[in-house]
Amino acid sequence: MLEIVRILMDYEKDPAGVEEMPQFNWELKSDKRGVVQKAYQLQIAENRDFDTPVYDSGVTESCESAHIRPLHVELKSAVNYGVRVRVWAGAGDVLHAALGECEESAWCEGSFVTALLSSEEWKAPFVSAESAPDCREESKGTLVRGSFSVGSGLKEAYAFTTALGLYHFYLNGEKVGEDEMTPGWTSYRRHLLYQTYDVTRCLREGVNTAGAMVGAGWYKGVMGLTRSRNNYGDQTAFAMQLVLRYEDGREETVCTGDSWEGTDAPVVFSEIYHGETYDASLELPGWCGADRTAADHTSGDWHAVETVPYDTSVLHAQGGARVRVIDRIPAKEVFVTPKGETVIDFGQNMAGRIRVTASGKKGDVIELRCFEILDTEGNVYLDNLRKARTTMKYIFGRDGEISYHPHFTYMGFRYALVVSYPGTPEAKAFTAETLHSGMEPAGEITCSNPLLNQLHHNYLWGLKGNFLDVPTDCPQRDERLGWTGDAQIFCRTACYLMNTYTFYKKWLWDLKADQTPEGGVPHVVPNIEEEHAEGNWLLKQGPHSASAWADAAVIVPWTMYLMYGDTAILERQYDSMRKWIEFMREHSEDYIWNYKLQLGDWVALDAEEGSFFGATPTDLTSTAYFAYSTGLFARIAGILKKDEAAEYEDLYGHIVKKFQDTFFDGNGSLKVQTQTAHIVALYFGLVPEGRTEQTVNGLKRLLDKEDGHLVTGFIGTPYFCHALSRNGCLKEAYDLLLKEDYPSWLYQVKMGATTIWEHWDGIKPDGTMWSPGMNSFNHYAYGAIGEWMYRVMAGIETDEAAFTGAGFKHAVIWPRMGGGLSYTDARHETIYGTIRVRWEMEGNRITLLADIPANTGAAIRLDRAQRVVEDDGLCFRPGDGYMEAEAGSGTYRIVFEFENFAGAFS
After folding, report:
1. Of 377, 444, 565, 823, which one has the greatest count of Cβ atoms within 10 A?
2. 370-384 tens-digit pLDDT
3. What residues are paired with 107 via a beta bridge?
């Protein structure tokens, strides 16, 4: 049976806030093998009967089921478009078969809501309840409201809302949607998002009231390494544009404006770093209820709003990946520390907030301080939070039971210190609510080693704790910035774990917007430090353009292309990528790149005592990245059929030659004897011809020197296992992964970590802490080992070699068995469907199970196979260290005997 499981638009299900014709992909399912799509029919309509569609592809003969973007279709703003698709497919040589010989699917339906398709359509001003300049030092919440009338026969209504600051949007007393921390964090002066809501059911005939509660957030609160205020502005404000359509064809627009009024909210203080104080005695029941009018001043000190000027040409709609509550985790226990302090333990390090339910009297106070870790004696440890207060405080406004959570902040925590509480706190009163961008889960690995299973859990939760609208470095201390280096090295792991396309697409827009005029890339995006670099000891040495960090401009779009097969992101970021390559070319000296501040192999263990900078010289690491990004950009230009591809291929060749001439001696050995120097030379393909084995042996010697341990930092660590396994050292790669003593990934696991740490020795073997100045216990960068576990251990890989292979249209299923594992079971949800690989070992016999999605194919490689016992109908041929067969879609069970080289599975 042929079935379309789902249809996605711009990689989202039923998105609201689409600015241009989306691209469509659909997932097929069949009980047959080798199923290939022959044709499809896609329709888009303003009504659900599809009698008069605005687009009908007709029966289009094509095997493409992804990246379909209808052309020459004029969409309208604020319309809920229905979408449906059906396909014809079959097994075997379908593309040469007659359409009537193929199986036809039923229709699969979806929808998308358009935003305002032109910036000129935005008419709503930003209104503020704050008064400038008195509000510059305040971080309190405010309320704004306005009333409007709805006539009879309302057919549909759409609201477009945003803020300078953070906001919750209300209609007739009810919060609209489940979004949190809207409109998110962007480079406000150059890029601001608005949210789109279908609010038809929220309205009624007659008088209605719209309102918003607004907080300081990233916009004006204390933020950044310099802890500056008012980084984007000093006056919070809200804007709403409401489109009303009636059955008789009338259309009305309602906007924020001078008739609105404002007052203070019960949120008397709220900032990202410092938490929130909520005084319930200041609540105004029914403040934006439907039964009030704009002239109703019976409660609260309402006053006229001020209009805040803003360039609305930089407004764009948010189509997906909005922040919301994802998990709700009940407290595991409440206990008393040796110092006598009461602590709540949720059992998991995370980012979010705590919902507390309690009974109290008017004036009672609940105060909790969130933190990550206990010290060696089991007491509260706050030093690594630095200046962040991470406190939530609730003041009872009446006697009775309440349920409260903060509104405009989040914390990174596993524990909460109970500073104040009415009565005796019990675990059932506290629930942690995680907050991160909404992304569908896309991957899972389990294996016979429980420590590796926990490691997978840890880097997944590292993502969940740091993908809150931007890919931050950490969620707990007074930093939480979008460091480009962390984002770049973790990007491929993130794409295996979650559907991150929309998330990264938004962030890359800000990266492009924040580039310097000559193409430099900030260390953090959004670049909140842009005007304050001189105030920080590190940034004043160079405010932008550190290799490995700034290379996110090229590497992240390339990774998205590999994982989603989408050239649109390459087109969109092309000018940004080129500007970065040209910046490096302009500031290099004879192809050696080493511009101002280079972070290098950050926090590597081979650094000098007291230094964050690893021992590998930055002219080597920077030039290596100059070559790597230029090589990728040349490939991108070729994929997009740009005329300048040859130019950048030539530039790449010059950089590689200069790297080899500079950093290798006449005997073919690297002059720099560090692990990272060897790793980047191998992984980036910079080793002189004929010297690979020599370089690999050099890396192995350096590894042996450390008793098999890594001493690498941010640059060397992500590629270490790849550099080994790609070059005949699979055993060494597994040995490195499976080390359990310090320093290693599993050392953190055995020390009780539930996320990835910033430092290999965040907690030292003796229980003492690394320096509190920079010691995050939720810092996902070293979780980049995840992609090796998916690509090598599980063997789920997209085919980079085939132009049609990106995005897993053609996959390579090639698990490399080792590490003493008896089985590995993994899945990854591609845009075509789920790839699953499970291998089980018994003696020298492997049973491999592989699921390949419909309308795709894969090369199945049997690593070190000597004899295929059961081929399940596939034809295996010898390859380079494996046996290989081409397979169409379907489920396969293969049994083979393999070469168990000495010690590989011990």
Report:
1. 565
2. 999 999 999 999 999
3. none
